[in-house]
Amino acid sequence: MPTPYGSRGGMAFGADELHVLRRSLAHALQSSTAPLTAVEVQDCLRLAASVDDAVQEAGRLRAFLLADLARYRAALPGSLTGYLELLQDALAAGYEPVPDDLAALRALRANPVAGALLERAQTIAERSVRRRLSTAPAPRTRLLTLAGGTDTRATDPRGAEKGGSGKESDPARPKPEPRPDDRPGRPIPTPGEVFPPRRKPTPPPEAGRAVG
């Protein structure tokens, strides 16, 4: 089984594993379309599984290294020697120093090793910040809506000259017609004209007078 080697993600292969890897690469580079034998396929599958296990083991070792680095950093300045050694291994493995590392190194810059590591860590941190800024998406422009809408005086030159809305200075606008109640006409009739008094009925002539 391949095993992690060093702090840069390297792997150590055995003789049998290198033989399988060499055969797989040679077959991939050949122009022949002849398929691999069943035994060769099984060897390739076992090698792939072993490589996956080695990658996982390398991840666990890296996690242990970072955990030890945090513990030694918390125990400073008593753990100065061990912290500087672990930090050197972590930087060699691709570790990007955090603000706590930079603050600790600034406090220990009187030590020559710590001073050299501070310059190296600052360079790595600045490079990391530039890379993140270059790959970050551009912020979207937010459109703000102003309350009140558009001013009519800004679009109507006639209203802008008089300081009004321009409604009274428009000669083409028709004047409103007067209502029927406002038109001059005959006076309002009195109740006596509307309802005239009733006349009293004339009594019928008497019978004697009619005969004589």
Overview of the molecule:
The protein is mainly alpha-helical and 212 residues long. The protein has nine helices and two strands. The chain has helices spanning 15-29, 38-74, 80-92, 99-107, 112-135, 152-155, 157-162, 191-194, 207-211; strands spanning 3-5, 10-12. A hairpin with a 4-residue loop joins strand 1 and strand 2 (10-12). Helix 1 (15-29) crosses helix 2 and helix 2 (38-74) packs antiparallel against helix 3. The protein is elongated and about 160 Å long. The termini are far apart. Residues 160-164 have low confidence and may be disordered.
Topology:
Blueprint: E1 3-5, E2 10-12, H1 15-29, H2 38-74, H3 80-92, H4 99-107, H5 112-135, H6 152-155, H7 157-162, H8 191-194, H9 207-211
Antiparallel strand pairs: 1-2
Helix pairs in contact: 1-2, 2-3, 3-5, 4-5
Rounded Rg: 52 Å
Average pLDDT, rounded to a whole number, is 74
How large is the share of residues in beta strands?
under 5%
SSE-based structural type: mainly alpha
Taking pLDDT < 50 over at least 5 consecutive residues as the criterion, the unreliable ranges are: 160-164
Strand order of the largest sheet: 1-2
| Head-to-tail CA distance between termini | 163 Å
Major β-sheet annotation: 2 strands, antiparallel
Can you count the beta strands? 2
**Count of alpha and pi helical runs:** 9
Element order: H for helix, E for strand: EEHHHHHHHHH
Shape: elongated
Helical residues, percent: 55-70%
